[in-house]
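Batch 3, record 17
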Amino acid sequence: MLCTAGTGPLPSPLLGKEREPEYRSRPKARETGMRIVVTGVAGVLGGRVAAGLAGRHEVRGVDVVEPADPPVPTVVADLADYEAARAALADAEVVVHCAAIHPWKPYTEEQYLHCNVIASYQVARACADLKVSWLVFTSSIAAKGYPTHYPPAELPIAEDAPVRNVDVYSHTKTLGEETMRYWNRRAGTPTWILRPPTFIPFDDDRRRVAMMFAGTWVAPEDIAAAHILAAEVRPDGVETAFLPQETPYTADDIAEAQAGGAEAVLERHFPGVAAWFRAEGLDLPVPQPFFDGTTAPTRLGWRPQWTPAKWWAEHSEAAR
Ligand SMILES: NC(=O)c1ccc[n+]([C@@H]2O[C@H](COP(=O)([O-])OP(=O)(O)OC[C@H]3O[C@@H](n4cnc5c(N)ncnc54)[C@H](O)[C@@H]3O)[C@@H](O)[C@H]2O)c1
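Prediction for the assembled complex:
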């Protein structure tokens, strides 16, 4: 029923060689040596988060399926079962709840409700009962809606933007966020709500590059780095943070791109890149409406390391 995806490094010749994410302007209050439980450890994100935390903390994983290559000792449990969730999270000081299902594989509405709504409720409930120090919840930009739901006049899309989503996955993320707020009100659990855009490790790295220039894809290693930071920085109540791609586009650029001027916008910021896409036989990416990216750098010291500007700096000479 559920998905297991690879947790290995991103095979990405076009994105440059693998490297450790830099943790720029790390907040001073980062904690080490904690007992941390990471859920969804058989998946793309949870596996990377658990592996990244393992050197500095005592880390356990939980997943409903056995990971093929577990990065940390792992308990197999369905987190929608309260007793199983409580047992799996026992003794945790911090819980990073990455487990969920996501539409990059097909699921039924019942599976979405089971894995994303009920399981998130039971995880937050167990965290409250176990008095964990704080919880990190992987939400999504989809909790608010997709970029196309917001006109250029409303950019950047604010952390507290109105909810505009109309699909079940996105709705489960909105409900998940509300569940985190509910348990914070009821039991006081400090909670990070992190909102990544797409970080699917597509096999075709040209697709990832195109989405990076559109502003809609961030490398899974970058998204994992934000979770690692959040696991080590106590949130103040409930804090939300979009984890967007770093792009130079303005609201006027987006309006121009939407009106058919994507090439002019791309060339203004990345001279020569349109020719690169054409040479690769790819459609030009159309820059998309963007999310407010100010919280994650300020509160977590996080910025993506795989960005279109860095990629083009590394590849533009070779492309000429
Ligand atoms: N992949 C993306 O592009 C993307 C974008 C935005 C947000 N997210 C969110 O990021 C998180 C991780 O996504 P991913 O891409 O790593 O997904 P993934 O499918 O690779 O991993 C998710 C893991 O959660 C586990 N899981 C699901 N339901 C469970 C349950 N009831 N009990 C225990 N384990 C359960 C699955 O078995 C799987 O191993 C999810 O919350 C997802 O909604 C993903």
